[in-house]
Amino acid sequence: MFRGRPRTRFVTTALAAVLIGATAACGGGPVEAEQDPNAALDIWIRKPPDSPTAQTARDLAAAFTEETGIPTEVTAIFEDFETKLQQAASQQDLPDIVINDTAQLSTMAGQGIVREIDPADIEGGDTLTPRSWDATRTYDGKTYAVPFSAQSFALFVRKDWREAVGAEIPTDWDELQALAEDFTTEDPDGNGEDDTYGYVVPGSTKRGYTAWYYSSFLWSAGGDFVTASGDGLAPAIDSEASVSALRWFQDSMCDGTVVPDAVTLETSQAHPLFESGVAGIYFTGPYMMSRFDENLGADKYEIVALPAGPGGTSSVLAEGENVYLMAGSANEAGQERFAEFAVSVTGQTIGMAGDTAGNIVRLPVNTEVAIGDVRTDERWRIFDEVYRESGRYVPTVPEWTPLLQASAESFNTILADCGVDVATELGALATTMAEELEKQGATG
């Protein structure tokens, strides 16, 4: 019946159709796995198998084994990670540990494949930033992971272009827009051709890119996706500030300062447009530095924090990875020990991997780790400051994905057609979001 070591049997709404036959075949109720504090831990991480990041994960696991004596095996999977995880769930052969995006929290918790934890039981948990713990809690306030890595986003700006057009580093959105216009019209690369643009925008609806990209601008302009209402949530996407923010976004697209075909671009298609000299401003994460250093040159661009918007603040999307303790493990004590090691000063330092491209900890979540003690590249400090001062995770709702996707499709519609009335479009989106929140039981 079971493949590999014994697992706790669990049946959730999402997996019931797959597991019900297996449960019936085995007969009886749930069977708890016999616990063995020395049992090997199977660790999955969402990284390319032969990448430097996969090697760092193996280094982290090896250091854990050396300290604790608990054997580990690391499996790095990048393509179809979530699909393979669901296949493992249907076979009741989940790994013990999964290191995966914070955005997967609600989905995995809703499927019942991760264990609820008490942060007070995690040794060293009180040294982690409160903001990082925010990314481990579901809508009902329960905790289903241990924070491991954080990241924020900033503007990558062609420094050589900025200097060529005689502009200063932008300190507000008017100056940012003026710089984008100069990059579009003032021939910043000096080739005598009208072939440059201000912004690179990954505006495809795939995986909600349009809304994912624009969330920082929406928040910094004083807008929002949802807001508190009674004991629940209500849409805020049609508020005056949100409408104004999306009009700014639409205007940027329609005045020609955004690269053509932005509404179809995924991130993998957007990256080359910055490094090849098509556009000079790209809002993205620290993981792009090594690539742009190699393909463009570190001296050709600079990293700038997103200036405060009309809302008076800069509120930037925060993301990262959590350590998920998977259901059905034969070594629950070992799971917790691994999580504790991963967030310790030693674990975080190994995961940061210095100034190499192998980092699986982009920004440390442990307050006792000083980023400057591990990395000499000063640019990481900008992202660290943005995260600590301005970082904001996506709204905590029972299931964010449908709201993200609905927002992306609406934002994409606004970008794709300069004739679309923003207020009308966002009003329709608010109705859709209200219906989804009600379906999820998240309304007041």
UniProtKB/TrEMBL annotation:
The keyword Iron does not apply. InterPro entries: SBP. One of its GO terms (biological process) is maltose transport. One of its GO terms (molecular function) is maltose binding. Residues 1-27 form the signal peptide. It comes from the Bacteria. GO terms for cellular component: ATP-binding cassette (ABC) transporter complex, substrate-binding subunit-containing. The keyword Transport applies. Keywords: Signal, Sugar transport, Transport. Belongs to the bacterial solute-binding protein 1 family. This is Multiple sugar transport system substrate-binding protein.
